[in-house]
């Protein structure tokens, strides 16, 4: 593990968060510091995980990167450009399945492309490709209410990937799924992201998910929200059976370390 003592080097490609602070004004007029001096760098084609206890500011940071929350202090750059509000270069997948209920799977996935005015033939090819990637070809004409939670989340992932974002942001995308479906979805995401060479930043408070998916884990602490550690698991996942992966010494050692950090953060919260 690397204790964060200095800012990461600026790289032109990828995501670069530099000295970001976030304060909220509460109802009684007092200011609450949700994020303090956040600096991090996520390289292209990597999966980054924001991991930390409840309330440490994971979703707030993700929303700032998405442009859904204002940035008053600090700078966020994506591939060299300063982020100022929402943009087509970023797409977000939420925990709740955010498909359009009145559109079929096919039309949901096509939605992002229509907005960009792609030619029809090209659009159809892209839509079919992503429906296939999330293994929903047999359900292309079904409507969201006819699908399970996991399938609906696959629609949301296909729709965001089809819009070809430079950065895919995911806020606990599998949090509402049962463990078995969650594992399947994680494996599917890993597979798609490797093939598509997508850059992903996701929020999780699940250590196993972070270690399974993350090329880099930004471990966050509370009071105020900050990045405490940058962890690069360096676990060889290619072709690894999941259960075998969980038995690796490296995996178990990291899991133990992170669990201890989680516990000490939880103690600070109640102190
Ligand atoms: N609009 C807001 N106004 C005031 N406080 C807010 C606002 N949004 C978030 N907060 C506070 O900022 C802190 C960080 O919230 P955030 O949702 O980002 O945490 P989190 O790490 O994602 O938590 P969880 O894992 O429980 O979802 C919390 O204390 C929360 O109450």
Automatic annotation (TrEMBL):
<comment type="similarity">
    <text>Belongs to the ABC transporter superfamily.</text>
</comment>
<dbReference type="InterPro" id="IPR027417">
    <property type="entry name" value="P-loop_NTPase"/>
</dbReference>
<feature type="domain" description="ABC transporter">
    <location>
        <begin position="15"/>
        <end position="247"/>
    </location>
</feature>
<dbReference type="GO" id="GO:0016887">
    <property type="term" value="F:ATP hydrolysis activity"/>
</dbReference>
<dbReference type="InterPro" id="IPR003439">
    <property type="entry name" value="ABC_transporter-like_ATP-bd"/>
</dbReference>
<protein>
    <submittedName>
        <fullName>Putative ABC transporter (ATP binding protein)</fullName>
    </submittedName>
</protein>
<keyword id="KW-0547">Nucleotide-binding</keyword>
<dbReference type="InterPro" id="IPR050166">
    <property type="entry name" value="ABC_transporter_ATP-bind"/>
</dbReference>
<dbReference type="GO" id="GO:0005524">
    <property type="term" value="F:ATP binding"/>
</dbReference>
<dbReference type="InterPro" id="IPR017871">
    <property type="entry name" value="ABC_transporter-like_CS"/>
</dbReference>
<dbReference type="InterPro" id="IPR003593">
    <property type="entry name" value="AAA+_ATPase"/>
</dbReference>
<keyword id="KW-0813">Transport</keyword>
<keyword id="KW-0067">ATP-binding</keyword>
<dbReference type="Pfam" id="PF00005">
    <property type="entry name" value="ABC_tran"/>
</dbReference>
């Amino acid at each position: 593990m690397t204790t964060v003592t200095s800012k990461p080097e600026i790289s032109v490609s990828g995501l670069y968060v530099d000295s970001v602070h976030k304060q909220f004004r509460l109802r009684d007029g007092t200011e609450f510091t949700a994020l303090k001096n956040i600096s991090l760098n996520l390289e292209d084609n990597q999966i980054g995980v924001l991991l930390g206890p409840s309330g440490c500011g994971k979703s707030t940071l993700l929303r700032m990167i998405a442009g859904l929350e204002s940035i008053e202090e600090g700078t966020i750059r994506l591939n060299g450009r300063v982020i100022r509000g929402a943009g087509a270069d970023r797409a977000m997948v939420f925990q709740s399945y955010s498909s359009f209920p009145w559109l079929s799977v096919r039309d949901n996935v096509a939605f992002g492309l229509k907005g960009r005015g792609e030619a029809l033939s090209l659009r159809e090819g892209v839509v079919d490709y992503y429906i296939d990637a999330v293994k929903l070809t047999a359900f292309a004409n079904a409507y969201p209410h006819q699908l399970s939670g996991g399938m609906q989340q696959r629609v949301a992932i296909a729709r965001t990937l089809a819009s070809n974002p430079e950065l895919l942001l995911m806020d606990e995308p599998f949090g509402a799924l049962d463990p078995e479906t969650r594992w399947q979805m994680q494996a599917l995401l890993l597979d798609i992201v490797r093939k598509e060479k997508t850059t992903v930043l996701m929020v999780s408070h699940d250590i196993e998910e972070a270690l399974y998916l993350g090329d880099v884990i930004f471990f966050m602490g509370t009071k105020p929200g900050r990045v405490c550690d940058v962890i690069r698991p360096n676990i060889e996942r290619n072709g690894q059976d999941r259960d075998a992966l969980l038995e690796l010494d490296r995996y178990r050692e990291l899991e133990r370390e992170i669990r201890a950090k989680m516990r000490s953060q939880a103690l600070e919260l109640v102190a």
